[in-house]
Specification:
Elements: H1 4-7, H2 15-29, H3 37-49, E1 53-62, H4 67-76, E2 82-90, E3 95-101, H5 111-117
Length: about 120
């Protein structure tokens, strides 16, 4: 006996049906906003100003390896126990946290890098 839903054309997938649905979705996404462009740009400029970095605090921590990985990691990559935690304060008052392993690549973050980022847009 045939199931009633399987004979319904709603469940039949055809190339034409997929294209029709896709084009309808694309048309809905491409509808332009009705807000004036000048209001949008002024909001963007105002928001970008608040993304400026006001302060960066750095803390270096040593997180030891667990017992089993320490047998090899302490010999091969002892510097991976050291991490640097960053706290970045923006002009808007928002605070973000970040971290990096010291010497994970060829270099570590130094004071010149921090001073170079001060006052610039965080994005």
């Amino acid at each position: 006996m045939k199931h009633a839903a399987s004979s319904d054309s709603y469940y039949n997938v055809t190339r034409r049906r997929v294209l029709r649905i896709g084009l309808a979705g694309l048309a809905g996404v491409s509808i332009p906003s009705f807000a004036p462009k000048s209001a949008h740009t002024s909001q963007f400029k105002r928001a970008a100003r608040h993304l400026n970095i006001q302060a960066i605090d750095r803390v270096t921590v040593k997180v030891p390896y667990r017992d089993v990985p320490a047998r090899n990691m302490a010999r091969e990559l002892p510097h991976w126990m050291y991490s640097e935690i960053f706290q970045v304060k923006l002009k808007s008052g928002h605070v973000g946290l970040g971290e990096t392993l010291l010497y994970y690549t060829w270099e570590a973050t130094d004071d010149d890098d921090v001073q170079n980022a001060m006052g610039k847009n965080a994005a």
